[in-house]
């Protein structure tokens, strides 16, 4: 199996993006940290949710009326790094996550190529890049592990057939 | 068909020796690197990567001090060493998984209680392919590098990504 390597044409969505986990800006740091731990993930997106067309369903009324599609406008990102900073300084568990998140992170569009995503990651030293649709909705999260996995896909034999330790030399040839 | 590298005659797939000249064909079945990147991965050694010098702490250092150091130096992982021995590694991931909301309560604990003991290490003379293997298969982000048993560096997934993209693009 061989892959054609095309960093400048293939979409960033091919590089194993994660499904973004979204929290509200008024969620507390305690909630977010526990969410990160339970889901074993490294980042969440902080998004303000709104209902498209502005017709928010009234309390009690029209419960069986289907709500309009939810639009998430991204405010920031809260990653392991922000968690570390919070642990080293803040330590107020009831602090809203919007106070400690990284605001307006660098993003890519879902039309971007893998090469562009790698470029942005390398330039800023980021491990997470939110992928946004044309209307600003977060649709994915490009992660550095996914990118490396995507690259290794192009030479699987070189990587996946390695012995577990570099200096394991068999004492004799295999065979019956 | 396998072409004998010595006499050029063709042999059936899986032959151990050439039918005509008895030249060993064993090595012919080893995977051959296809591209220059693959050759580089199998040839270049980890020491050729510009890795960062590791930030080291003692096993009895308090968790709060270590966290402060990591933030101040903008570093994602510290090595816990005692003398010349690498005891463990403490990363952002450990902080998130083990300290989490208890960070304040654990602040005075020694770092050895929350570190990851006996991390996977590689030697500086190992090939880069191994580093890529560990990170991709094991899911590690940092691998400590030893030179003759002494901790000399740490390579991060970022170093690997930089190495790959430099050669692929």
Summary of the model, kept short:
With 176 residues, chain A is an alpha/beta fold. Chain A has helices at 29-39, 80-90, 114-124, 144-152, 156-160, and strands at residues 22-23, 43-51, 70-79, 102-103, 108-109, 128-132, 138-143. In chain A, strand 5 (108-109), helix 3 (114-124) and strand 6 form a beta-alpha-beta unit.
Topology:
The complex is a heterodimer of chains A (176) and B (169).
Chain A: E1 22-23, H1 29-39, E2 43-51, E3 70-79, H2 80-90, E4 102-103, E5 108-109, H3 114-124, E6 128-132, E7 138-143, H4 144-152, H5 156-160
Parallel strand pairs in A: 1-2, 5-6
Antiparallel strand pairs in A: 2-3, 3-4, 6-7
Chain B: E1 2-3, E2 10-11, H1 36-43, E3 56-57, H2 63-72, E4 77-82, E5 85-91, H3 92-99, E6 116-117, E7 122-123, H4 128-138, E8 142-147, E9 150-156, H5 157-168
Describe the structure.
The complex is a heterodimer of chains A (176) and B (169). Chain A is 27% helix and 20% strand. Chain A has 176 residues and is of the alpha/beta class. Chain A has a single domain (12-52, 69-160), classed as CBS-domain (Roll), CATH 3.10.580. Chain A has a 4-stranded mixed beta sheet with strand order 1-2-3-4. Chain A has a 3-stranded mixed beta sheet with strand order 5-6-7. Chain B has 2 domains: 1-30; 46-168, CBS-domain, CATH 3.10.580.10. In chain B, 29% of the residues lie in helices and 21% in strands. Chain B contains 5 helices and 9 strands; from the N terminus they run E-E-H-E-H-E-E-H-E-E-H-E-E-H. Chain B has a 4-stranded mixed beta sheet with strand order 3-4-5-6. A 3-stranded mixed beta sheet of chain B has the order 7-8-9. A two-stranded antiparallel ribbon of chain B has the order 1-2. The longest helix of chain B is centred in the last third of the chain and has 12 residues, at 157-168. The two termini of chain B are 34 Å apart. Chains A and B meet through helix 1, helix 2, helix 3, helix 4 and helix 5 of A and helix 1, helix 2, helix 3, strand 7 and helix 4 of B.
